[in-house]
Specification:
The chain is an alpha/beta fold. It folds into two domains: 2-46 and 92-291, Rossmann fold (3-Layer(aba) Sandwich); 56-87, no CATH class. 39% of the residues lie in helices and 15% in strands. Strands 4-3-5-6-9 form a five-stranded parallel beta sheet, sandwiched between helices. A two-stranded antiparallel ribbon has the order 1-2. It has a two-stranded antiparallel sheet with strand order 7-8. Strand 5, helix 5 and strand 6 (206-213) form a beta-alpha-beta unit. The protein is elongated. The N and C termini lie far apart (52 Å).
Length: 317
């Protein structure tokens, strides 16, 4: 009886150990996310943009489409050019986060120093820091949104209590015109994954997909007799010559990514691929550019049909 009980509790003991491990790493991850956010802040204007508001943002050259009443004559008097005074848009909205904390995200090969889970948490917290500094509300799917200087710490506290055995974002009711950041390896079947994306997009929410992969998952750098064990489900496979699988494996991974990109494009969403051996600042800057509205206004619009680009493959960040 005691042996049977021990076997029954074994999976839960493993989950508890992983939860304690994440809790122990969280302060370091929070500090790392703040460092990343600080680095990115120096290279961007944040989510600031011109629009209705009281706060001065910047001067810019007068354009033929501008109204004469918008000219700042004092600034223009000191130059040979006419300048327009722009105010900062102060309409805050909500950004929702989902971080995949399933067992597959705990993978780390010798090619990387961090797990996919740790990198996903750092990226989510770094973006929370940046967005909260810009006055936005940030929350995790299924929780309430936070605002203010302590938003990053509050999001970290919610993450500590999160557990998941599934690699798909949970169903959630989201406010229209909000945005959603999804961090995962997205290695589940494409049809199931896209169905969740469509559920989110149908609520008038603009999404941003961040695929996080260990470099070994892209290259399959193994040779000789190799045993592969699934992180979820317990399946195992032994390859007599692992290198013989490399080409077909890489082709399948590429096809999987292209399918995800096509789904994101149809929904009008953005897609970024990131490898855990690369600096987190690279992908945070890329995501932040999308969020800052550099590609278009944040308010959701139904995407227009467009021809597929000549090279649909995303450049890993």
């Amino acid at each position: 009886m005691a042996n049977a009980r021990a076997k029954t509790l074994q999976p839960f003991l493993a989950e508890e150990a992983e939860a304690h491990g994440l809790a122990a790493r969280m302060p370091a991850l929070l500090i790392e996310s703040q460092r990343v956010a600080h680095t990115v802040t120096h290279g961007t204007h944040g989510r600031r943009r011109p629009g209705p508001g009281e706060t001065f943002w910047q001067f810019r050259h007068f354009d033929v489409n501008d109204s004469l009443s918008g000219i700042d004559w004092r600034r223009s008097a000191s130059s040979d050019h006419l300048f327009v005074r722009e105010r900062e848009w102060e309409a805050a909205h909500t950004v929702w986060l989902w971080v995949d904390l399933s067992p597959s995200m705990r993978f780390r090969s010798t090619l990387s120093k961090v797990t996919k889970e740790s990198r996903a948490v750092v990226l989510a917290l770094a973006l929370t820091e940046l967005l909260s500094r810009a006055g936005e509300r940030v929350g995790l799917l299924g929780s309430v949104p936070f605002a203010g200087r302590n938003a990053g710490r509050k999001v970290a506290e919610v993450l500590l209590n999160e557990t998941s055995e599934t690699s798909l974002p949970p169903p959630a009711r989201l406010s229209r015109f909000s945005e959603c950041l999804l961090f995962s390896d997205f290695l589940e079947p494409v049809d199931e994954t896209v169905a969740r994306f469509q559920s989110i997009a149908s609520q008038g929410v603009r999404g941003h997909l961040v695929q996080i992969l260990d470099p070994a998952e892209e290259t399959l750098p193994y040779a000789g007799r190799t045993e592969f064990a699934a992180s979820e489900g317990g399946e195992r496979m032994i390859a007599g010559r692992a290198e013989s699988l490399r080409e077909s494996y890489q082709e399948r991974m590429e096809r999987h990514r292209i399918d995800l990109q096509d789904a994101a494009r149809r929904l009008g969403w953005s897609f970024v691929a990131h490898h855990t051996d690369r600096p987190p600042e690279e992908v945070v800057l890329a995501i932040h550019s999308h969020l800052a509205g550099l590609d278009r206004d944040y308010r959701y619009r139904a995407p227009r049909p467009a021809a597929a680009p000549a090279n649909p493959t995303a450049e890993p960040a």
